[in-house]
Structure formats: C-alpha cells, structure tokens
C-alpha cells in the first residue's frame, strides 16, 4: 500500500500550520477582548470616581404631605435616612436637597448639609440635577437616595455605585429585591423585570410579568424596585431636557423615560426586607418591623 505523497504531506502540514495559527489568533482575540473589558471597566470606574449622594426631600407630597418629617420611633424619617446613608463608603459627599424651609431647618439641626432647590422640580431626579448644578466641585456619579427609605442599607448604596462604575454602557443603575406576594397588587410598590445581563427591561406599578391567569405565581421570582438610583452625572444634566414619554406618563415612573429614550440601566438584586414609606399606614408597619428586630 502506497504511503501519502510528499505533496499531500506538505498540504497536511500547511493545513495544520494554518489551523494552529487560527487557534492562536482566536485565543489572542479572546484574550484581547477580555483584557479590553477589564480595562474598560477599570477606566469607567476611574472616570466615574467622584460620587455625591443626594437625598431629595419635598414637603408637598400628594399622598403623604410632610412625609420627610414624620417621626419614625422618635426620629424624623429624613434623619434616619441620612444616618444610614452616611455609612456608605463610596460617597464623597452627602446632602439633602429640598424646597422647604421646615425640612431644611430640621436637617441642619441634626448636622446634615442642605441645598435649597426650587419647588418646580417634578421628581427626585430633577431635584438631584438642580442640586448638582450648585456644587463647585465636579462629581461623576450622583446617587439619588430616597428620603422615604429610613432603613436603607449602606451596602445597597455602595452596590449601585459600583454597578454603574463597572458598566460603561449604562447611564443609570438601581436596585431591586424580592417582591412579597401581599405587595403584588399595590401600585405604590413598583415592580421591574431585567434581562439576562442585569439590565432593566421595564418598570410598572402593575404586576410584571403577568401570566395568562392574571394571578400571582408563587414560584416566580418577581422583583420589587427599590427607590435608590445612581446616574452618570453627564446624563443627569441631559435628563430634564428629555421630553416626557408615553410610558412614563402612563405609569408615572421616571425610570421609563430613561428606557424609552434608549439608554441602558443596570439593576442589582439585593436582599432587603424593610421597604419605603409611601403612605401614613406604612409608618406603623415600619415601626413594628423595627421593634421586632430591636432597631433603634
């Protein structure tokens, strides 16, 4: 039986050589892609290194007037939020932004920094933007810390900051936790859904996703949106210039204006039992929660 010809051997050798080169090239491209991702994330974190936390607080809430000043086990709610936020390690500065003298006086009384803003701000994001313009120092990330989250964990604040720093394609980051079945139909508890990469798809006051039976599926991991949000400072300056969008207006959720304009929003999933205070009835709930866990 004849062995392979010399030309065949050369051809096989050439093919193996090309294959080896192709594999090496592929590995090099893959390694370069990984290196680029790491470098991009490090660069993003470096470029977004200066962080300010802002607690927007207004007196004239339609559902709960004077909410920031309501006592929670003897302390104004805004003070409890401030004290929790001060424990975050990623914030270079923390301020309360308000349009109300009573709230400002209260905050100054317990040692908070205060920036006065106008009463024309339509939501917390616009109030954060107005406050940002009044700083002499430049910040890269602005964290909107809801004043009605008196038990917000500082780790969640740090988490949304780090998530935005690690996602150069996102301009916004926020947090979500498990939705309790009893909150499924509560329009004050905002729900959200995310994609497989942790980016927001949609937010709603209704239950999402909604199955064909229109009933809560006890096995589905529904998500409750927490109020804390962080923004790329450059995007925050653009936000007020964006016209209101149909979904934003229908749901009355400012996050939807971000998504409808094609921007990316990163969502981190966290464990967080205590939720915000939306109505007067929530005050008793959160005080009971604190007593049960000996939280002062």
Automatic annotation (TrEMBL):
Q: Which residues cross the membrane?
A: 20-39
The enzyme's E.C. designation:
2.7.7.38
Instruction: Name its cellular compartments.
Output: Membrane
Catalytic activity, per the record?
3-deoxy-alpha-D-manno-oct-2-ulosonate + CTP = CMP-3-deoxy-beta-D-manno-octulosonate + diphosphate
- GO BP annotation list: carbohydrate derivative biosynthetic process; small molecule metabolic process
Q: Which InterPro entries match?
A: Cytidylyl_trans, KdsB, Nucleotide-diphossugar_trans
Q: Name one Pfam family in it.
A: CTP_transf_3
Its pathway, per UniProt, is: Nucleotide-sugar biosynthesis; CMP-3-deoxy-D-manno-octulosonate biosynthesis; CMP-3-deoxy-D-manno-octulosonate from 3-deoxy-D-manno-octulosonate and CTP: step 1/1
MF terms from GO for this chain are:
3-deoxy-manno-octulosonate cytidylyltransferase activity
The UniProt keyword set, sorted, is: Membrane, Nucleotidyltransferase, Transferase, Transmembrane, Transmembrane helix
A single GO cellular-component term from the record reads: cytosol
Family of the protein in this entry: Belongs to the KdsB family.
Instruction: Name the HAMAP family on file.
Output: KdsB (MF_00057)
UniProt protein name = 3-deoxy-manno-octulosonate cytidylyltransferase
What is this protein's gene name? LOC110766762
């Amino acid at each position: 039986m004849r062995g392979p010809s010399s030309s065949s051997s050369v051809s096989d050798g050439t093919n193996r050589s090309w294959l080896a080169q192709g594999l090496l090239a592929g590995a090099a491209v893959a390694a370069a892609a990984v290196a680029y991702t790491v470098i991009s994330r490090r660069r993003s974190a470096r470029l977004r290194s200066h962080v300010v936390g802002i607690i927007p607080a207004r007196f004239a809430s339609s559902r709960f007037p004077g909410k920031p000043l309501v006592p929670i086990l003897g302390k104004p709610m805004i003070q409890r939020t401030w004290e929790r936020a001060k424990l975050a390690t990623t914030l270079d500065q923390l301020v309360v932004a308000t349009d109300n003298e009573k709230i400002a006086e209260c905050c100054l009384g317990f040692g908070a920094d205060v920036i006065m803003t106008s009463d024309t701000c339509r939501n917390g994001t616009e109030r954060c933007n107005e406050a940002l313009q009044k700083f002499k120092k430049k910040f890269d990330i602005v964290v909107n810390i809801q004043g009605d989250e008196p038990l917000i964990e500082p780790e969640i604040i740090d988490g949304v900051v780090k998530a935005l720093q690690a996602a150069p394609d996102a301009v916004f980051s926020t947090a979500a936790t498990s939705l309790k079945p009893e909150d499924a139909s509560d329009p004050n508890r905002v729900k959200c859904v995310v994609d497989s990469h942790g980016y927001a798809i949609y937010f709603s006051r209704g239950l999402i996703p909604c199955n064909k039976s229109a009933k809560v599926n006890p096995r589905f991991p529904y998500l409750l949106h927490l109020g804390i949000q962080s923004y790329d400072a450059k995007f925050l300056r653009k936000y007020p210039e964006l016209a209101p969008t149909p979904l934003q207006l229908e749901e009355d959720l400012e996050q939807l204006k971000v998504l409808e304009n094609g921007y990316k929003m990163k969502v981190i999933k966290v464990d967080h039992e205590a939720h915000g205070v939306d109505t007067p009835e929530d005050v008793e709930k959160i005080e009971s929660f604190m007593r049960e866990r000996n939280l002062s």
